[in-house]
Specification:
Elements (H helix, E strand, L loop, with lengths): L2 H17 L6 E5 L2 E5 L11 H6 L7 E5 L5 H8 L4 E6 L2 H13 L6 E5 L11 E6 L22 H9 L4 E12 L4 H10 L2 E10 L7 E9 L1
Parallel strand pairs: 3-4, 3-6, 4-5, 6-7
Antiparallel strand pairs: 1-2, 7-9, 8-9
């Protein structure tokens, strides 16, 4: 099995699907909830499952969701009792979708969504928890839809680990998604250079073949 070739084709098909959504959007069911995605937005998918089913949010904590997409992780953080959630995404379509979903789930006053290249729009705010399901493959991305799955020269991930410490409160934690078809070793190197301790929290497979696995790591300043 040529896993990279299979994955390229599968991800390219998914990008076509994200682009094919009608202007009024499309409803996607995910676990026990519904989310609306406008065209060009990454749909809630199995990759975020280990994160949303295993992350710990204490009531009243603040959460920064980096690369929020449809806002799915931020909305789950609100449902878990977070008192403030900020979702950031570079893609304006994602910002529109996440803003809609925060409102649709009743969290307009709790969850703010900003168009931002990583932390650029945040000034110096710090959070109890940072969540991130960023593109986890090192592969050239030529448009904003491809940028939801591929990270050219792994630069977005590199900048994430360079900057995340400036947005984490003392005692805070990061929940970070990777995949067995992504760049696990590079991610571990970046996390360690940022002075983070890394523990695998959970992993889920897309099906019984376990060909594609998604992993969530809990990272804490060491
Ligand atoms: C794999 S998708 C995940 C979306 C959502 N968090 C989820 O779990 O379904 C990655 C997201 O990261 C966003 N992204 C990519 N590069 C970014 C950057 N430089 N700054 C902010 N967001 C970025 C993409 O637009 C996309 O919405």
């Amino acid at each position: 099995m040529d896993l990279p070739g299979f994955t390229d084709q599968w991800q390219t098909e998914r990008q076509k699907l994200f682009k094919s959504v009608p202007p009024e959007g499309r409803t996607v069911r995910y676990l026990d909830k519904e989310f609306l995605v406008y065209p060009d937005t990454f749909w809630p998918f199995a990759d975020s499952l280990p994160l949303v089913t295993h992350f710990r949010i204490e009531p009243g904590e603040s959460v920064l969701d980096v690369g929020t997409g449809s806002g799915v992780i931020g909305v789950f953080a609100c449902h878990r009792g977070a008192s403030r959630v900020v979702g950031v995404d570079i893609n304006p379509a994602a910002v529109r979708s996440a803003t809609h979903n925060a409102r649709m789930h009743g969290f307009a006053a709790t969850m703010e969504v900003l168009q931002s290249d990583l932390f650029d729009a945040l000034r110096d705010e710090r959070f109890d928890v940072v969540t991130a399901n960023l593109p986890f493959r090192n592969k050239p991305a030529h448009d904003v839809v491809a940028m939801s799955q591929w990270d050219t020269d792994f630069k977005v991930n590199t900048r994430f680990f360079e900057g995340v410490g400036r947005h984490l409160r003392p005692g805070g934690r990061i929940y970070f998604v990777q995949s067995n078809f992504g760049e696990i070793e590079a991610t571990m190197r970046l996390a360690r250079s940022a002075g983070l301790r890394v523990a695998e929290l959970a992993r889920e497979s897309i099906d019984d073949t376990r060909r594609q696995e998604f992993i969530v790591y809990e990272m804490t300043p060491g």
